[in-house]
Amino acid sequence: MTRTLTILGIESSCDDTAAAVVRQVGSTLPEVLSSIVFGQNELHNAYGGVVPEIAARAHAEKLDICVRQALDASRQTLNELDAIAVTAGPGLIGGVMSGVMCAKGISAATGLPLIGVNHLAGHALTPRLTDGISYPYLILLVSGGHCQYLIARGPDDFTRLGGTIDDAPGEAFDKTARLLGLPQPGGPAVQAEAASGDPKRFRFPRPMLDRPDCNLSFSGLKTALMRMRDQVAASKGGLTRQDRADLCAGFQAAVVDVLAAKTRRAIGLYLLENPATPTLAVAGGVAANTAIRSELETVCTEMGTFFTAPPLHLCTDNAAMIAYAGLERFKAGASDGMNLTARPRWPLDLNSPSMLGSGRKGAKA
Ligand code: KG4
Ligand code: ZN
């Protein structure tokens, strides 16, 4: 018999309060019945980054209405659902706790099963929600908070091939924009400036390319940019529009080169064990960068690998990805119950050594 599953997803691990309803009939392509996202940009803008305490309070205030809107937009009532999925980590702990408590409340009131979802798994499984790709596949998560290469084999089965040891690429784009007086979020602003810049005028480093692994580092690019900006400003008494465009173009070219080289390595490693399923998926806000996207597509073409990237609204933080990851876990028999705990750190691959540091958007896991 064909089984239909309808799952409510809740996400509150950083600065987006989100709820969504996803349905799958049998093993057909799942359908996003609703996806509501309340951003918090205006609450944090004045501080130059996400303030965890402000984020947690805003989540607690907005979660109920967000869930209500997601149910209304999907035309579902709570008793038509099969389960509730909630981000249980990694992320800013106050926000994660708000979401988990909200989900527990609904579960206690309705008796619906509760499923904890790893936020990174939500991103990593999105290409299955949007394109129905099969396991295994290689995924590059590249956003303001994350940067890692993972082999996805199942909803709870990931192998990390490498990741950033410091900043995430989106974080580097945002810092670059701040250093050059461009608006936030920095990625689109830097990309727009770079379009009229000369990528060869400033020589940016290509960090970690001398190492044979899939790890990356982006914090040195920002230091290099600051030095170059100060040199130009000191010699001319300020920056011209062209100087700024050239700095953006040089910075972006360095990010593109590093991601292309490390992706080549990651695909090579992945194909050694998975030659029959040559697929690279990219997810996260930075996947919106046209230079990065087209270079990764070129790398895939060269290596005979299928390339896919979900539409932007499902690349950036949302709850449809959490509902879908919960749906996969539920199908596999998972159910967490009232002892589900919120976790600030939660690596997808427990066998890999933990990555250093914690970023602007919480732990990098
Ligand atoms: O996935 P996302 O919405 O949030 C998390 O980080 O979880 O990603 C946001 C990041 C920001 O750092 C933003 O500057 C970056 O994605 N971004 C871009 C572009 N569009 C968004 N970076 C480079 N180029 C873009 N076109
Ligand atoms: Zn995210």
Automatic annotation (TrEMBL):
GO cellular component: cytoplasm
Catalytic activity reported: L-threonylcarbamoyladenylate + adenosine(37) in tRNA = N(6)-L-threonylcarbamoyladenosine(37) in tRNA + AMP + H(+)
Cofactor needs: Fe(2+)
Amino-acid positions noted as binding substrate in the UniProt annotation, renumbered to this chain: 141-145, 174, 187, 289
Keywords linked to the UniProt accession: Acyltransferase, Cytoplasm, Iron, Metal-binding, Transferase, tRNA processing
Pfam families attached to this UniProt entry: TsaD
Highest taxon in the source lineage: Bacteria
Family matches, as InterPro entries: ATPase_NBD, Gcp-like_dom, KAE1/TsaD, TsaD
GO MF entries: iron ion binding; tRNA N(6)-L-threonylcarbamoyladenine synthase activity
The keyword Amino-acid biosynthesis is annotated on this UniProt entry: no
Primary enzyme class: transferase
Domain Gcp-like: 31-324
Functional description taken from the UniProt entry: Required for the formation of a threonylcarbamoyl group on adenosine at position 37 (t(6)A37) in tRNAs that read codons beginning with adenine. Is involved in the transfer of the threonylcarbamoyl moiety of threonylcarbamoyl-AMP (TC-AMP) to the N6 group of A37, together with TsaE and TsaB. TsaD likely plays a direct catalytic role in this reaction.
Protein name according to UniProt: tRNA N6-adenosine threonylcarbamoyltransferase
Species the sequence originates in: Parasedimentitalea maritima
